[in-house]
Specification:
single chain, 420 residues, alpha+beta, 5-stranded mixed sheet, 4-stranded antiparallel sheet, 5 helices, 37% strand, WDR18/Ipi3/RID3
Length: 420
Amino acid sequence: MTDCVEIALTSDTAAQHWSCSAWDVRTGAQLMTYRNGGPTGPNTLQTVCNQFLVTGNLTKPMLTIWPINRQEPTRIKYMLPGPPGAVAISPDGNYCLVAHSHSFTVYNLHSGASMASISHHYGKVTVLRFTDDGSHFISAGHDCRIVVWNLARTVQQKDAGRMLYELADFTLPVSDVLVGKGGMKAILAAVSLDRSAKLYELATGRLLLSVLFPVALSTLALNTLETELFVGDKKGLVYACNLRSVPRSKEVHLQQELLERSVFRGHKKAITCLSVSMDNETLLSGSEDESVIVWHVKTRQQLKVIPHKAPVTNALFIVTPRAMFDQSRELSVTVPPFQKMVSTRQDRERAVIELPALKRSLRERSYSGATAAEMSPTVAVSRDSKGTELQQLEQEIRRLKAINQRLYQQSIRVIMNEQN
């Protein structure tokens, strides 16, 4: 078992021996491989609550799901209307967005129901992103537009208000979109083939900064402090932009001599994906030159080169899953097959979702971890003290409920008196 805080997940278009793989970025060692899922498409590699792995097939209309500690996928076939162009999983693991051609579908992972199918874009949808609180999501693609959606209104199929706004500031297809931390108060960053990188205020869509590069851009990443922006281009270079030095104008044109001070050189073809570690010390980049490079951010030096068999489609840091190296742990995938037709409101009201529940009292659950051999006299005393503490807590809950009931009744009387 590795003691790394973060590991890297990568995939390529060949899938000769595996569909995606986990790597130790310090040593370059391969930690785990996930097989028999076919080639993984760009922007389709996702994790569900750090316990399951989801990939979208590059050529076939299907998704594949693995338990994080198993090399073989589940036997369930997750069929889609078309080959997935992008996949996004909500942070709570309840919803899955899948793009196919110029539309995308919202699925409920616990029931498999198709909650909504959206055909708003005129071109192929290539990017789907959730906010970190899961309340909204963003879609972008070849029609040069970025659209911000409200998840609750989209799931409820309310046409009025589910789309907050759209951004049409780009003149060529949008390559990548990134959402910062803070829910709707976060920063929205995007790059396009028109050589521009733009930063927006997500809540309002107000443009904060536009940086114009001399070459077409393909992907971007933002460090956890949101002080440095990393941009990859179509020629194999990665640029770092310091966001702490605020320019005088909203639009900045970067010349080649200025970019030379903060460029990462090592790839020979277009950059396809970027990811920054939690400590902001390490940068991960994947390219069409069939390699993934681990960089030291401050010195811009290469730490490791991880070779692949084909152009890299995904490369990202994740927190090392605790269950990945525990083969004895059984992670049951509770995601049923996806429904083809969009469910109606009546179907959702009749839907039944079964969740495992413990039919034991709180006191019994608190002692379930101790075996009879472990119950020494000292533990027995601790058990009695825990029982007394639980009784005190239950008594306090009853007292607070009574206070809340009196407050509620008093509020009703005050409101009725004001109306009279």
